[in-house]
Amino acid sequence: MVLTARPVSLFSSRCPSLLTSFSRPNPWRAAFHSHAARRPGFMRNGTGFDGAHVSKRLLTTQREKVKVLAVLYDGGKHAEEVPGLLGTTENELGLRKWLEDQGHTLVTTSDKDGENSTFDRELVDAEVIITTPFHPGYLTAERLAKAKKLKLAVTAGIGSDHVDLNAANKTNGGITVAEVTGSNVVSVAEHVIMTILVLVRNFVPAHEMIEAGRWDVAEAAKNEFDLEGKVVGTVAVGRIGERVLRRLKAFDCKELLYYDYQPLSPEKEKEIGCRRVHDLEEMLGQCDVVTINCPLHEKTRGLFNKDLIAKMKPGSWLVNTARGAIVVKEDVAEALKSGHLRGYGGDVWFPQPAPADHPLRTAKNPFGGGNAMVPHVSGTSLDAQKRYADGVKSILQSYLSGKFDYRPEDLIVHRGDYATKAYGLREAATGKS
């Protein structure tokens, strides 16, 4: 679906690593960071971020139109019924009138795959691209090379792994990549807790039994457990991971563990009642439940393969609301089938949308349950959509005004370099965290 606006002229302006070392080798030592990892500080002054000079010419409103391309998912009748479904092609993050009133052009599409897609055709002369983790338009190096006018790539939400960040740094003098940090961390954390409970309490098979008109208490209860008394660990403890641990505190788990390159403060650890484990394999071997809350980058892609899954406690549950490509889908499906994993749940897939034959759509444990997969919805509740729509508008305003006064925490790459530790592991990391 494609929605286009009448091109009207107004103004435009141009926007002009994690490096860790470890003493001992370990193949799993990838220095994890949460979706919304802590960002390095920026200086604001009269000349812009980090003292970089912004000329008076750039700070002057220019009467040139800007073409904005938005790649979103179709909402159909649902978007008509609920205007709060802002992340759809129909409701367009609430941006169309705001942009057109200023003379800019907004092109919206859900057609994003293949060389002849609307995404590919319209990207060629777009100055700004907006896409979303829930229906990502993948900005590969090849696509970026064709986007000669592109200056700003905005993620409506959090998680910008759909962009080749290295290529963005080198394209058109450095494309700024920004996301709406913090916009849906609560939404995702709540979804993690829900998924853990759905798996541990064997909810899905029990509910399906009722829908089918059946009643067998023994069948439902034979694979049902309490969360209390279990050991739960999170891979990364940034904004999402920390919120997950805080919410788990109320369940009286036996122990709450975390693995991250950067520890929480002793005060936070005491307040939450959690403990850092320096070795990922060691943590996995202790946990009844593991939740993945790190971003996707070079060192986390395919991390949870058959070798690492084998290090997990037999009969444990794995939850992934981070990114689908962090796990090897075939290996997860096999571990579930064998019973080594009692359950797998989450909302992230690779690619997205997930093909009909994706193995994690139907993978089950030996009891015929253990699957709590849903579409990519954890971070796109109606409340979250309002927050990230507002955030996208704020980022666009910073760009279109020529002020470039972005929130520092929203910047992923800027001025040809990484602006965050959440992405861009630039060299191999080995050893202990």
Automatic annotation (TrEMBL):
GO biological process: formate catabolic process
SUBUNIT field: Homodimer.
Main location: cytoplasm
Binding site for substrate: I158, N184
Protein name: Formate dehydrogenase
Subcellular location: Cytoplasm
Residues that coordinate or bind NAD(+): R239, I240, D260, P295, L296, H297, E298, K299, T321, D347, H376, V377, S378, G379
D-isomer specific 2-hydroxyacid dehydrogenase NAD-binding domain residues: 193-377
Cellular component GO terms, alphabetical: cytosol
The organism of origin for this protein: Corynascus novoguineensis
Catalyses which reaction(s): formate + NAD(+) = CO2 + NADH
First-level EC class: oxidoreductase
Pfam families on file: 2-Hacid_dh, 2-Hacid_dh_C
Protein family membership: Belongs to the D-isomer specific 2-hydroxyacid dehydrogenase family. FDH subfamily.
Molecular functions per Gene Ontology: formate dehydrogenase (NAD+) activity; NAD binding; oxidoreductase activity, acting on the CH-OH group of donors, NAD or NADP as acceptor
Keywords: Cytoplasm, NAD, Oxidoreductase
CDD domains xrefs: FDH
HAMAP family referenced in this protein's UniProt entry, alphabetically: Formate_dehydrogenase
Site feature Important for catalytic activity, where: R323, H376
Function: Catalyzes the NAD(+)-dependent oxidation of formate to carbon dioxide. Formate oxidation is the final step in the methanol oxidation pathway in methylotrophic microorganisms. Has a role in the detoxification of exogenous formate in non-methylotrophic organisms.
